[in-house]
Amino acid sequence: MIAELICVGTELLMGQILNTNAQFISKELAPRGIDLYHQLVVGDNPARLTEAVNKALARADVVILSGGLGPTDDDLTKETVCAAMGKPLVLFENEWQKIVGYFEEKGRLVSDNNKKQAMFPEDAIILDNPNGTAPGCIIEKDGKAAILMPGPPRELQPMFINFVLPYLDKRSNHILYSREVRIFGMGEADVAFRLRELFSGTNPTVAPYVKTGEVTLRITARCSCREEGLSMVTPVIEKIRDILGDFVYSIDGETLPMVCHKALIEKGLTLSVAESCTGGLLSSAFIDLPDSSKYFVEGAITYSNEAKIRRLGVKDMTLKRFGAVSIECAIEMAAGMKVRAGTDLAIATTGIAGPSGGTADKPVGLVYVALATNETIMVNGFQLFGDRDRIRLTAVLNALDMLRRNMV
Question: In angstroms, rounded to a whole number, what is the distance separating the alpha carbons of residues 6 and 22?
């Protein structure tokens, strides 16, 4: 089934209101196997709206419209759609009484203008709106359907979930089943090259989505039920893991912090963190998750050399000889944090986030991450790129990836 979305309102075109309805509806349609090829924002103009509706009805099975169902003269969505579909409007007395009751409950006077909100084609399917005065409706003709809903998200969202989705489910004979595979440490181009044969599949499909520092693959099957979808995508996921190995860190859409969080709890390990360039971001990645108190013991932001010496026991000679951004300093930071916190694991970050402070030998973006375990201390160096925020975030991701690969 093909759907098309039209959001009505001059205020949307002018940027006065953020169009959150389009995102909400799109995200709800995708898992149900309903194809959405076009989205459009149209101002409160009958001629342009008529043109948009006619085009949408010609190429889609269902046209979903939001906005323009109010009582004012510029609220013309219902009138315009009904004219385009050749459906005259009549007053639904029971809907009018609901509107009157709504106003009385709020202690407000109802206006005759509100009567237009109770007018629909005789064969319309009415969508109740307990959160406002504008009922929605579904208008059907020649196998096509126009679904009209009010614009305010607090009215549209419950109407869509409670009434529109069940209607669409009855019209659709398949769903989309998706799984997310997350990859860290390999660029999009390399992933695409290694998985080029899988990318050419039609059902299931494999689609890449690039986020800061990592790649997500969405494997999607068009199927009749969840069980069938699972059986279709599982071999593809296993093939991806065979090809990419431990660059794959999740096959269930979990983030790097979630993967580390889960492993720390399952293994019963405790963790402490010492940060310089990441300035608390790494600690927050853990603390943001519920139950992190089961393993997270302590975090220290030792930004200055003096703090590294006083708080972590980094040697003054180490800082003078190698500098704060060095393998040696990172190792001593992690070792000192582990001893002082008494944890099984300690991870430390130090680097140059920029935009200034870099040199030829130590450019902006140079970051060292050290991990101290009960058996050893390891350190990795990274030359990261981007602005200050990107460098700090990517440093955190590299630290998390190092942790998840080396938990013992």
Answer: 8
